[in-house]
From TrEMBL:
Taxonomy, superkingdom: Bacteria
Any one Gene Ontology molecular-function term assigned to this protein's record: ATP-dependent DNA damage sensor activity
Ranges for domain DNA mismatch repair proteins mutS family: 688-704
Residue positions binding ATP: 614-621
Gene name as annotated: mutS
Keywords, sorted A to Z: ATP-binding, DNA damage, DNA repair, DNA-binding, Nucleotide-binding
Species this protein is from: Desulfonispora thiosulfatigenes DSM 11270
Lineage of the organism: Bacteria, Bacillati, Bacillota, Clostridia, Eubacteriales
Signal peptide limits: none
Function: This protein is involved in the repair of mismatches in DNA. It is possible that it carries out the mismatch recognition step. This protein has a weak ATPase activity.
Name used for this protein in its record: DNA mismatch repair protein MutS
One Pfam family recorded for the sequence: MutS_II
C-alpha cells in the first residue's frame, strides 16, 4: 500500500511477516510506526500522531518513540495485550549504500519479556503451552527470565486448567486446532502458534537439538507424547520470538501432578495462600506471614513451595530437620540471612547474559554476588542436618568465575556499554595503552590550561570540550584584550569567546582518536567477557537454586522463631493431633486481643468427619482453616503455629469456604459453590483433607440442608477423607448418631443477659442455635429490626413447620406502608414533571433527597432485611429534619 518510497517498500515487506505485531521500525534514534500500527500505538501510548510523505502526494499516519526510552513504551503496549516486533538497522547507515538493511531481531510478547520494567522481582513470568491428545493433555511452562522449564501430561481437563492457573501465566499458547480455551478464565492471555510447531516429530527434533541429546529417554520424556508436543512447541515459540535459542534453558523437568500435594485453584483462593480474597488486604495471605526471604530468588521459590507442598515423607522430614537446625542455631541463621541479603537476582542476570542484554552493572552485580558464595559455604560447614550438609557438599563457590570478573571488570562501570570504563586495568594490554594516552592527553590539557593562564595573565581562562568544536580555550569578555595573537577565534558567546590553537588541536586528535578506539575496544572486550560468562550459565543457575532454597529455609526458620511455631511430627498413622493450634494469619491481625488456640483430633475411624456448629463470628471458619493451613505448612517443611502437633501427610487439601460470586465467568454464587463441591467429590481420596464452610447456604434453606446432609453422608461413607464441616444447619448434628465417623463440635459462647460474649473455644458437642440476632445487634442493626427478628424467631421456634410469616400489626407493616407512600409520592412527582408542572417549590429538598435515594434502590436485588434497614435510615432522615 505504501509502494512509493524505497523505505516504505522495505517497511511493508517486513510488516507483512509480522501482521499480528506492532512493528517498531528503527530509523536513526527513533523507532517509528506507520499506518494502522501508528494509529493504534499513538492512542495507547498517548503520543502525537503525525504523517509522512508516501509519494504521489499521499501521506501515511506515523508516530515514533525515542530509541533510548523505548522500554517504557514497549511495556505499555505489552500491558495492553499487544505484541511488539523490534526491527533494527542491520548495518551502519554511514557505510551502507542505498537503503539500510533492516530486520526483526526480537518479538516481545507478555510471556517472553526480559525487560526489568515488565517483570516483578518476586514473581515468575511463565509462558505456558497446552496441547490436547486423545487421552491426555500436554502442558509446558517456561520462564525465560529465570531459565525454568517444566512439562507434564495430565488426564483430566479440570486438572489441566488448575495447573495452568497455578503458574499464573503471563501468556498461554496453543494451536488453533488443538484446544478450546473457553474454559480458561479471561485473565489468561492466549496466543496461537503455528500448527506445524505442534507436530510430534517436529517437537522431538526441536527438543533434541536444544538439549543436545540423541534420545528423549535421558530426560524421561520418551513415553509422554503430549508433554513432548507442549514443550517442543513452546521452545519453538521462544526461538521464533527471540530469534535465538534461549541459552539459559538447560533442563526440562517432567513432573506428574500427583508428585505434590494437590491444591486446586478454589482452595488456594479460599485459603488465601498467595492472593488475598479482598485485593486491598495484602497482608491477609499465608505468604505474607511466611515470606521473610531476602532475595528475589527465595521469594519466587517460596511462592512455588506454597502452591506445591511436598507429599514425600523423606523430603518433608529433611526440610523440617533443616528448619529445626536453623531455628536452634541462631548464629547460623543470622549469618546466613545476612550474607544472602547481598546476593542479587542471579537467574535474571543470567537471562540477560544469555540474550546479550546484560550491561557492565549486571556483571558487577554478578561479581558482587559471587564474592559472597565462599562465605556462605564456610558458614554451612558447621551444619548437621541432612539437607544443609548435602547443600554444603554440593556447594560450588564459583570462585573461578568470580576471579575472572574481578580481573576483567572495571570496578565501577557505567550503565552504558558504549562509553568506556568497562574493563579493568591490566586485563588487556591495548586497553591499558589507549587508556594511558587518553589519561596522559587529558593531563596534558590540564597542564596547558595552567600554563596558558600564567603566560597570558588571564585568570578566568579555561579549557573546555564539546562535541561540535572539540577542545577550546574559553575567555570571558573582560579579558579579551589580553588574548595572545596566535589564538584562533572559533565561537562568540554572550559573555565569552572561544579559541583554539594548532597545538591544542594536535593533542586533541591524539586524545580523541585514542578515546574512540578505547571505547570501541572496551565494548568488544566486554562482549567477549559476557560470552565467556555465558559458558558458565548453568553452573551459576544451579547455585541460584541452592541460594533460593537456603533463603526459603532460613525465612521459614525466622518466622518459626518470631511467631512461636513448633516442629510438627509426621504421623505414622493417619491421625491428626494438634494441641493449641492457631491460625497464622488471623493471630497476626488481632491487634488488641489474644488469639484463642484450639485442639484438633481426628482419626480415620470414629473421628474423621467433624461437624462444627455455633454462633456466627464464633470462629468456626478460622478453626477449620487453621487445620488446613497446618497441613500445608508442614508439607512445605515449615513449623506450625501450635504447642504440639502430629499430622499425617495428606495427598490433597480442599477448601470450600464461604460463598463467592464469580460474575466474570457468568456463574452465580450457588453455581460456583456447587462446582467447587463437585470438584472435591471427584478428586478427594481417603488421604485428603476437606474443609467445608457453610456449603449449601447459596440456595434455599431446605435445598441447602438436603445437599449438606447428603454430601456429609457421601464423604463419610464413600470418600472417607478427613473433613471439617462448619455449618449453621444444626439439623446435621443428628448425623453423629447415625454415622460412626461423625463427631460434633461447637464454638462456645457466653450469654450475658440478652448479649453474648465470644469465647472462641471449640468444645465437644453440637450447638443448637446460631445467635445470629445477637451478632446482628453487635453489628449495629437498629433495635426495631432486632426486636422484630426476635418475635419472628420465637414464632418460628414454636411452629417450625411455618415457612410463610404473617406481618400483621407490626412495625414492618408500617414500614411497608411508608414505602408505598413514598413511591406514590415519587410517581406523582414524575407525572407532574412529565406534564411540565413545576413541583419543585412544593417538595422540599429533604423529600427530594429521599426520593433520589429511593430511586437508586434496585428492588430486584435487595433482601427484605436490607430494605428495612434502608427505610429506617430514610425515615430517620425525614424525622430529623422536621
Ligand atoms: N480462635 C480465635 N481467637 C481469637 N479471635 C478469633 C478466633 N477465631 C476467630 N476469631 C475472630 O473472629 C472473627 C470471625 O471468625 P470466623 O469467621 O471464623 O467465625 P465464624 O464462626 O466462621 O462466623 P460465621 O458463621 O459468621 O461465618 C475472625 O475474623 C477473628 O477476628
Amino acid at each position: 500500500m505504501f509502494s512509493s518510497t524505497p523505505m516504505l517498500i522495505q517497511y511493508q515487506e517486513i510488516k507483512n511477516s509480522y501482521k499480528d505485531c506492532i512493528l517498531f521500525y528503527r530509523l536513526g534514534d527513533f523507532y517509528e510506526m506507520f499506518g494502522s500500527d501508528a494509529e493504534v500505538a499513538s492512542k495507547v501510548l498517548e503520543i502525537a500522531l503525525t504523517s509522512r510523505e508516501a509519494g504521489k502526494g499521499r501521506r501515511i499516519p506515523m508516530c515514533g518513540v525515542p530509541f533510548h526510552s523505548a522500554d517504557n513504551y514497549i511495556a505499555k503496549l505489552i500491558n495492553n495485550d499487544y505484541k511488539v516486533a523490534i526491527c533494527e538497522q542491520m548495518e551502519d547507515p554511514k557505510k551502507s549504500k542505498g537503503i539500510v538493511k533492516r530486520d526483526v531481531v526480537r518479538i516481545i510478547t507478555p510471556g517472553t519479556v526480559l525487560e526489568n520494567n515488565l517483570l516483578h522481582e518476586e514473581n515468575n513470568n511463565f509462558l505456558v503451552c497446552i496441547t490436547k491428545g486423545e487421552n491426555s493433555f500436554g502442558l509446558a511452562a517456561v520462564d525465560i527470565s529465570t531459565g525454568e522449564f517444566y512439562t507434564s501430561e495430565i488426564n483430566k481437563k479440570e486438572d489441566l486448567i488448575n495447573e495452568v492457573l497455578r503458574y499464573t501465566p503471563a501468556e498461554c499458547i496453543t494451536s488453533k486446532t488443538q484446544f478450546e480455551l473457553d474454559q480458561l478464565p479471561n485473565s489468561v492471555k492466549i496466543s496461537y502458534h503455528y500448527d506445524y510447531a505442534f507436530k510430534g516429530d517436529y517437537c522431538k527434533k526441536i527438543l533434541l537439538e536444544h538439549f543436545n541429546l540423541n534420545t528423549l529417554q535421558s530426560i524421561g520424556l520418551e513415553n509422554f507424547p503430549e508433554a513432548i508436543k507442549a514443550s517442543g512447541a513452546v521452545l519453538d515459540y521462544l526461538i521464533s520470538t527471540q530469534k535465538n535459542p534461549p541459552g539459559n534453558i538447560e533442563k526440562l523437568k517432567i513432573y506428574h501432578i500427583e508428585d505434590n500435594m494437590y491444591l486446586d485453584f478454589a482452595t488456594k483462593k479460599n485459603l488465601e495462600l498467595i492472593q488475598p480474597i479482598n485485593i486491598q488486604e495484602k497482608n491477609s495471605t499465608l505468604l505474607s506471614v511466611l515470606d521473610k526471604t531476602v532475595t528475589p530468588l527465595g521469594a519466587r521459590m517460596l511462592k512455588s513451595w506454597l502452591t506445591k507442598p511436598l507429599v514425600n515423607k523423606e523430603e518433608i522430614q529433611n526440610r523440617l530437620n533443616a528448619n529445626e537446625e536453623l531455628v536452634n542455631n541462631l548464629d547460623l541463621r543470622m549469618k546466613l540471612r545476612k550474607l544472602l541479603d547481598s546476593i542479587y537476582d542471579l537467574e535474571r542476570i543470567i537471562a540477560k547474559i544469555s540474550f546479550g542484554n546484560a550491561n557492565a552493572k549486571d556483571l558487577l552485580a554478578l561479581k558482587n554476588s559471587l564474592e559472597i558464595l565462599p562465605k556462605v559455604k564456610t558458614i554451612l560447614e558447621q551444619a548437621k542436618s541432612y539437607l544443609l550438609k548435602q547443600t554444603y557438599e554440593q556447594f560450588d563457590d564459583l570462585n573461578d568465575i568470580y576471579s575472572l570478573l574481578e580481573k576483567a571488570l572495571y570496578p565501577d562501570p557505567p550503565f552504558s556499554v558504549r562509553e568506556g570504563n568497562l574493563i579493568n586495568d591490566n586485563y588487556n594490554e591495548e586497553i591499558d595503552y589507549l587508556r594511558s594516552i587518553t589519561r596522559d592527553g587529558k593531563e596534558w590539557i590540564l597542564k596547558l590550561e595552567q600554563e596558558e593562564k600564567q603566560i597570558s595573565g588571564i585568570k578566568s581562562l579555561k579549557i573546555g570540550y564539546n562535541k561540535i568544536f572539540g577542545y577550546y580555550i574559553e575567555i570571558t569578555k573582560s579579558y579579551l584584550h589580553l588574548v595572545p595573537e596566535h589564538y584562533i577565534r572559533k565561537q562568540t558567546l554572550a559573555n565569552a569567546e572561544r579559541f583554539i590553537t594548532p597545538e591544542l588541536k594536535e593533542k586533541e586528535a591524539l586524545v580523541l582518536g585514542a578515546d574512540d578506539k578505547l571505547k570501541e575496544l572496551e565494548y568488544q572486550t566486554f562482549i567477549m567477557l559476557r560470552e565467556e560468562i555465558k559458558a558458565f550459565n548453568f553452573r551459576i543457575l544451579a547455585m541460584a537454586k541452592i541460594i533460593a532454597e537456603l533463603d526459603c529455609l532460613a525465612s521459614l526458620a525466622q518466622v518459626a522463631v518470631t511467631e512461636n511455631y513448633i516442629k510438627p511430627e509426621i504421623s505414622n498413622n493417619t491421625n491428626f493431633n494438634i494441641s493449641n493450634c492457631r491460625h497464622p494469619v488471623v493471630e497476626k491481625k488481632l491487634a488488641e486481643q489474644w488469639f484463642i488456640p484450639n485442639d484438633i483430633n481426628m482419626n480415620s475411624d470414629n473421628h474423621r468427619f467433624l461437624i462444627i456448629t455455633g454462633p456466627n463470628m464464633g470462629g468456626k471458619s478460622t478453626y477449620c482453616r487453621s487445620v488446613a493451613l497446618a497441613s500445608i505448612l508442614m508439607q512445605i517443611g515449615s513449623f506450625i503455629p501450635a504447642d504440639k502437633a502430629e499430622l499425617p501427610i495428606v495427598d490433597r487439601v480442599f477448601a470450600r469456604v464461604g460463598a463467592n460470586d464469580n460474575l466474570s465467568t457468568g456463574q452465580s454464587t450457588f453455581m460456583v459453590e456447587m462446582s467447587e463441591v463437585a470438584n472435591i467429590i471427584n478428586n478427594a481420596t481417603k488421604d485428603s483433607l476437606i474443609i467445608l464452610d457453610e456449603v449449601g447456604r447459596g440456595t434455599s434453606t431446605y435445598d441447602g440442608l438436603s445437599i449438606a446432609w447428603s454430601l456429609t453422608e457421601y464423604i463419610h461413607n464413600i470418600i472417607k477423607a478427613k473433613t471439617l464441616f462448619a455449618t449453621h444447619y444444626h439439623e446435621l448434628i443428628t448425623l453423629e448418631e447415625k454415622l460412626n465417623g461423625v463427631k460434633n463440635y461447637s464454638v462456645s459462647v457466653k450469654e450475658e443477659g440478652d448479649d453474648i460474649v465470644f469465647i472462641r473455644k471449640i468444645i465437644s458437642g453440637g450447638a443448637d442455635r446460631s445467635y445470629g440476632i445477637q451478632v446482628a445487634k453487635l453489628a449495629g442493626l437498629p433495635s426495631t429490626i432486632i426486636e422484630r427478628s426476635k418475635d419472628i424467631l420465637s414464632t418460628l421456634e414454636q411452629k417450625p413447620e411455618q415457612t410463610q410469616l404473617s406481618f400483621k400489626e407490626t412495625e414492618y407493616k408500617e414500614e411497608m406502608l411508608k414505602i408505598k407512600e413514598i413511591q406514590e409520592l415519587k410517581s406523582k412527582h414524575e407525572l407532574n414533571t412529565k406534564q411540565g408542572i413545576n413541583t419543585k417549590q412544593d417538595i422540599n429538598s429533604k423529600h427530594e433527597n429521599v426520593l433520589k435515594q429511593l430511586e437508586k434502590i434496585d428492588l430486584l436485588n435487595i433482601t427484605p432485611l436490607e430494605a428495612i434497614n434502608t427505610l429506617y435510615k430514610l425515615q430517620n432522615s425525614l424525622k430529623s429534619e422536621d
